[in-house]
From TrEMBL:
Residue intervals of the AB hydrolase-1 domain: 3-216
Source organism of this protein record: Nonomuraea roseola
The name this protein goes by in its record: Alpha/beta fold hydrolase
Cited PANTHER family: MONOACYLGLYCEROL LIPASE (PTHR43798), MONOACYLGLYCEROL LIPASE ABHD6 (PTHR43798:SF5)
A GO molecular-function descriptor: hydrolase activity
Annotated keywords: Hydrolase
Length: 226
């Protein structure tokens, strides 16, 4: 059985999931699609097609983080027969939450006009305050993948309201109580929009994959093996 892990904005398979893969290798063959190099005006459907293009024609478990959660939800809605279990981490439904839209639009503007502030804004909204403090100057290091700006612009256009009723796979939605990029109310709304879904909440900033790797691995494993 395959486990497909879909990365989020500004990340790639290595940065989002590289440290987690071994935690699933004994129970699943892990596949980590990569759309971090795609640029231009992106769409959710384009990224969904990119993720599924080379997948085997058989059922699989699907995990998405951040924008990857939006993409994973779209995949599950469009091809319910193949998605066996679905896990959506720190995702959202649309940009009707002004706080959410303001964060994405500010992030995109800084990316286009002020690289130094862009580098600082990322960790401020991606992690909990204590985690950023512990990271120190390392929090602002690193070069984002080429597709980051295009993905941020897509983040601000997301609207998957009409797709949620089409999701039939057993679904676990995970929210992060200290999420400053996608306020946790958005993850709760995602859960409420998917009939029969389960919900879990972790004490973490947005990038729970790095802040709480053991806890998120356990949640995913327990769910896909249930």
């Amino acid at each position: 059985m395959n486990l497909v892990l879909v990365h989020g904005t500004g990340g790639d398979p290595a940065t989002n999931y590289g440290h987690l893969v071994d935690g699933f290798a004994d129970v699943r063959h892990v596949i980590t699609p990569d759309y971090s190099q795609l640029t231009g005006e992106l769409s959710v459907d384009q990224l969904a097609s990119h993720v599924t293009a080379d997948l085997p024609d058989e059922p699989y478990d699907l995990v998405g983080f951040s924008l990857g959660a939006v993409v994973a939800a779209a995949i599950a809605a469009g091809d319910p027969a193949r998605v066996r279990r679905l896990v959506l981490i720190a995702g959202w439904v649309d940009n009707s939450d002004f706080r959410l839209h303001l964060g994405f639009s500010t992030w995109a503007r800084l990316a286009a006009t002020d690289p130094t502030s862009f580098a600082a804004f990322g960790p401020l909204v991606a992690f909990s305050p204590a985690f950023v403090s512990a990271m120190g100057e390392d929090a602002t290091k690193g070069t984002p993948p080429p597709g980051t700006v295009s993905q941020i612009e897509l983040d601000a256009r997301v609207d998957i309201r009409d797709r949620l009723p089409l999701i039939t796979a057993p679904t676990l939605v995970v929210g992060c109580s200290q999420d400053h990029l996608v306020p946790v109310s958005n993850a709760r709304a995602l859960h409420e929009g998917i009939a029969g879904s389960s919900y879990a909440e972790l004490d973490s900033g947005h990038v729970v994959l790095l802040e709480r790797p053991a806890e998120i691995t356990t949640l995913i494993r327990d769910f896909i093996l249930s």
